[in-house]
Amino acid sequence: MSVSADPFSKPASLAAALKGGTVKKRREAAVALGKSGNLSALPALGEGLADPHPGVRADCVVALGRLGDSAAVPFLLQVLSDPEADIRAGAIAALGRIRDPSSIDALIGCLGDRDDRVRIGAAEVLGKLGAEAALGPLTALLQDPFAAVRETAGIALQKIRKSSRKPYLS
């Protein structure tokens, strides 16, 4: 029986499963905690970000994004330096889902990441946030060696400029 299908799975027992057991059980626990919608899962998911298995860390990132609360932002910011690009990109996607402006500075820092998927994700989220502070760094990305990065930076710049326009008074 999987952890997520267990009728007795409460956040506390899922949190315990996330700390120990097989990789499969830890991953199932992370997914179930994210689906629970229960913000009491935040500390356990935050601890799961330090798991040695990248799949568990990735599932914790997705779960934090799924909870969709600004309280998850500090946990997500800590994995923006994870050695795995997929996890960094996942954290950026989760931050995009939460849309908390407190993540803007860290996202601007991600525009210089060595992985193009991370740069693309950061540019997209900064565009969604209308982050005027990112105008300079996004403009610099128009010279990126990867066409997809350049295109995404251009779209983000358009979104930011559009969102910063003030309506005309009649």
Describe the overall structure.
- The protein is an all-alpha fold and 170 residues long.
- It folds into two domains: 10-98, Leucine-rich Repeat Variant (Alpha Horseshoe); 101-163, Alpha Horseshoe (Leucine-rich Repeat Variant), CATH 1.25.10.10.
- Helices cover 64% and strands 0% of the residues.
- The protein has ten helices and no strands.
- The protein has helices at residues 11-19, 23-36, 42-48, 54-67, 73-78, 85-98, 104-110, 116-129, 135-140, 147-164.
- Helix 4 packs parallel to helix 6 and helix 8 runs parallel beside helix 10.
- It is elongated.
- The N and C termini lie far apart (65 Å).
Please tag this protein with its features.
170 residues, mainly alpha, Leucine-rich Repeat Variant
Describe what is shown at a glance.
It is built from ten helices and no strands. The protein is mainly α and 170 residues long.
What is the overall number of helices? 10
Span of the ends, CA to CA: 65 Å
CATH topology of the largest domain: Leucine-rich Repeat Variant
The named CATH superfamily of the largest domain: Leucine-rich Repeat Variant
Q: Which spans of ≥5 residues are poorly predicted at pLDDT below 50?
A: 1-8
Q: Structural class, please?
A: mainly alpha
Choose one word for the global shape.
elongated
Q: What percent of residues adopt helix (DSSP H or I)?
A: 55-70%
Radius of gyration: 18 Å
- CATH hierarchy, class of the largest domain: Mainly Alpha
Which range does the strand content fall in? under 5%
Task: Tell me what the CATH architecture of the largest domain is.
Answer: Alpha Horseshoe
What value does the average pLDDT take?
Answer: 92
* Main sheet makeup: none
Helices and strands, in order, run as: HHHHHHHHHH
